[in-house]
Write a structure and sequence with these properties.
Layout (H helix, E strand, L loop, with lengths): L2 H12 L5 H12 L8 E5 L2 H7 L13 H7 L7 H13 L4 E5 L5 H6 L10 E6 L1 H14 L4 E5 L3 H5 L4 E5 L10 H6 L7 E7 L1 E2 L4 E8 L2 E9 H9 L3 E9 L17 E8 L1 H7 L11
Parallel strand pairs: 2-3, 2-5, 3-4, 5-6, 7-9
Antiparallel strand pairs: 1-8, 6-11, 8-9, 10-11
Bound molecules: S-adenosylmethionine.
S-adenosylmethionine binds next to strand 3.
Length: 291
């Protein structure tokens, strides 16, 4: 028996009716401890209910959470980055120059990916982030003279949506309360031709909200999405799912809810069909045109 299957069997036994209450007590204690970093706990109606249950904390808006991104992820790509780089490079070759990167940390993808392929001269790479991380990103960009890179805060997300060729969001969209991709598209007058979503918690069950220990004493609510519904909603707005991939490096074990666990997160690439593609050039400027 492999280690993975042995631990799966152990989990199945612990999830049984007799041991489940003790399992939940143990996992709840673990969740709130330092050793609970990256663990998940609980099923909530919405972000408000999760926040009422969590201790008051800054969530992602905490400078200490930038350290790994500054020191590692600006310099290194991981296996799950390759599909994104593949489609991004093709989009750039196809004339795309404007990237909106939702939850792009200090600009990690901008810095790490540019070592692998050439980015356009006229590049604009706009990151939407929480204030503490955006402030660090701005200062890094100033020092690196990375004039293509700019930052805004989440409360300006709606204004930042329009007029980009590419929307990118890696491991981030599910931490925003109201950011289903289709809802963002509906808010956007001039929609992107390319949508690249990486490291998303997708599965075949019902949507739900859970909470994650994100380190440095911080905790965040997050969405888990039904895969097909999320894809159908985007496709209904004039896009086709052109690629999808598994991210086995990210999984979700939710104690007490084996049916809601996710063995691997997902990546998705959507390309605009004719109409939405024109929208980016303003030809379909009116909001109703693509909805
Ligand atoms: C797991 S990290 C992923 C960072 C990066 N995209 C990557 O793949 O390495 C999640 C990112 O989402 C950002 N984030 C969380 N909530 C956010 C919000 N409400 N608005 C903007 N960014 C947010 C966090 O600050 C963090 O940088």
């Amino acid at each position: 028996m492999t280690y993975a299957s042995a631990s799966q069997v152990a989990r199945q036994i612990l999830e049984g009716p007799l041991t489940r209450p003790a399992l939940l007590r143990w996992r709840r204690r673990l969740f709130f401890s330092e050793a609970g970093f990256a663990c998940y706990f609980g099923v909530f109606k919405d972000f408000d209910e999760a926040r009422d249950w969590l201790p008051p904390n800054p969530e992602f808006d905490h400078a200490a959470l930038a350290a790994e991104y500054v020191n590692v992820r600006t310099k290194k790509v991981f296996a799950y980055d390759y599909p994104v780089m593949w489609w991004l490079e093709r989009a750039f070759r196809d004339g795309a120059t404007r990237v909106l990167d939702i939850g792009g940390s200090v600009g990690v993808h901008f810095y790490a990916y540019q070592r692998y392929f050439e980015m356009p001269q006229a590049l604009s790479w706009h990151v939407v982030e929480v204030p503490a991380i955006a402030a660090i990103g701005r200062e890094m960009a100033r020092q690196a003279q990375a004039s293509a890179l700019s930052f805004t805060h989440t409360d300006a997300l709606e204004q930042a949506l329009a007029g980009n060729d590419i929307w990118l969001s890696a491991g981030a969209l599910h931490y925003l309360d109201h950011a289903r991709p289709a809802d963002l598209l509906k808010q956007c007058e001039r929609r992107p031709r390319h949508i690249l979503l990486n490291k998303l918690p997708l599965y075949d069950g019902e949507d739900y909200v859970t909470a994650q220990n994100i380190g440095a004493g911080c905790f965040a609510p997050m969405h888990v999405y039904n895969r097909q519904r999320l894809i159908d909603e985007v496709e209904a707005l004039g896009y086709a799912l052109r690629d999808e991939w598994q991210v086995p490096e990210r999984s979700l074990y939710l104690p007490g809810f084996p049916e809601r666990c996710i063995p691997a997160h997902s990546g998705l690439y959507f390309g605009a069909l004719g109409g939405a593609s024109q929208g980016v050039d303003g030809a379909l400027g009116d909001r109703g045109a693509c909805t």
